[in-house]
Amino acid sequence: MTGRVRARLVVLLLAASGLSGLASADERVAVDGHYYLDSDQLEVWHPHASASVEMNEETRVTGSYDADVISAATVDVRTAASPRGFRESRHGVGLDLAVAPSSTLRYGVSTSGSFAPDFTSATGGARLAIEDDARIHTFAVSLSASYSSVGRVGDQSPTGDNGAVGASLGWTGVVSEALVLDLSAAAEASWGYLESPYRFVTIYDTASTRTLAVAERMPDLRLRGALMGRVRIAPTDDVFLRGSYRLHADDWGVLGHTAEVAISVAPVPELLVTLEGRYLGQRAASFYRGRYETLPEVPELRTRDRELAGSTTLSVAARVELSLPVILEGLPSVFVRGELTHTRLYDTWLLPERVAGVVGVGLTFVR
């Protein structure tokens, strides 16, 4: 196997544990774009670009830009905010500083901002990773905080704001030359205005045809946690396997399980093909109802956010990466990725099923 293919497989083995910086080059530029379309009449164009430069032997700086150009006429929009749908765009920028003073110690800080006509957010984070002298065990910790201002398009006064803080702990163990294990735990607390200012909930009277539309109302505090385990195996020089399981829950009653499997194969040195599968099963939030039939009483908590509904999601994806000839003493590569997702929403009478597709292309240049 050539050094280029081996390097890609090493990055796949190490990336999620934060060890990929060990295989990084002096400069890296990446440009990609993804297009999302689903059966709920939602379209999203997502361009992304990043550049990473090694300032010295210990320090690396990475800058990034991304955007979401959205066109939507979903069921939620047509029954609540605007029967004609909407178009808008969101722009985001990020900056990351990574420092590796030794082969067994790494730390970094990052900041990012996201801007839309009705939404502004700022996020900051810090991380630390320590390896043992044999470089078999890696322990990592990260902290994050964010602030968001939420409003409505055309309304100059913000509807509300919210904040969040989070932390994660992780362990990575190199069991053998071909096997890596990961364990991690994460927690987050968010508070403030957690509703959507566009979503309204219809309350029905079972004894008559009378209805009442009221603004969505959710708790002002949400505590979430997640546990994840993953195994990554390279049984041969040209094959890489990975599998993971994630359990997440919150104090709103949501409980979810995610299982993922993937295989990457390099049939020839210049080509890497990856196939992925994912299953997500989720229990609904305790106050979620597909239909509220309580008039004349109005529930204190109510939502039409289908992300809080009970659901199952199945997705399959394929990614093909092709290495190109050396240009300007660097290694360019291109990729194409496609994903198909089917979601079944329970206790949801408006569009209980959703089918979505994602197509993406990208170019990476490393030297």
What's the arrangement of secondary structure elements?
Elements: H1 3-14, E1 27-38, E2 42-54, E3 59-72, H2 75-81, E4 86-102, E5 105-116, E6 119-131, E7 137-150, E8 160-176, E9 179-192, E10 200-204, E11 211-215, E12 221-236, E13 239-250, E14 255-268, E15 271-283, E16 311-323, E17 331-345, E18 353-366
Antiparallel strand pairs: 1-2, 1-18, 2-3, 3-4, 4-5, 5-6, 6-7, 7-8, 8-9, 9-12, 10-11, 12-13, 13-14, 14-15, 15-16, 16-17, 17-18
Could you please describe the fold and organization of this structure?
The chain is mainly beta. The protein has one domain: Porin, CATH 2.40.160. It has two helices and 18 strands. The protein has a 16-stranded antiparallel β-barrel with strand order 1-2-3-4-5-6-7-8-9-12-13-14-15-16-17-18. A two-stranded antiparallel sheet has the order 10-11. The protein starts with a helix and ends with a strand. The model is unreliable at 1-23 and 78-83 (pLDDT under 50).
Q: In CATH terms, what is the architecture?
A: Beta Barrel
Number of E-type strands: 18
Estimated structural class: mainly beta
Label the overall shape.
Answer: globular
Q: How is the CATH topology named?
A: Porin
Please state the CA-atom Rg, rounded to the nearest Å: 23 Å
Biggest β-sheet: strands ordered side by side in the sheet: 1-2-3-4-5-6-7-8-9-12-13-14-15-16-17-18
The level of helicity is: under 10%
**Amino- and carboxy-terminal Cα gap:** 20 Å
Number of helices: 2
Spans of at least 5 consecutive residues whose pLDDT stays below 50 are 1-23, 78-83
Q: How many structurally independent domains?
A: 1
* CATH level 1 class label: Mainly Beta
Q: Which whole number gives the mean pLDDT?
A: 89
Largest sheet: number of strands, sense, barrel closure: 16 strands, antiparallel, barrel
Give the DSSP E fraction (strand runs of 2 or more residues): over 45%
Taken in chain order, the helices and strands follow as HEEEHEEEEEEEEEEEEEEE
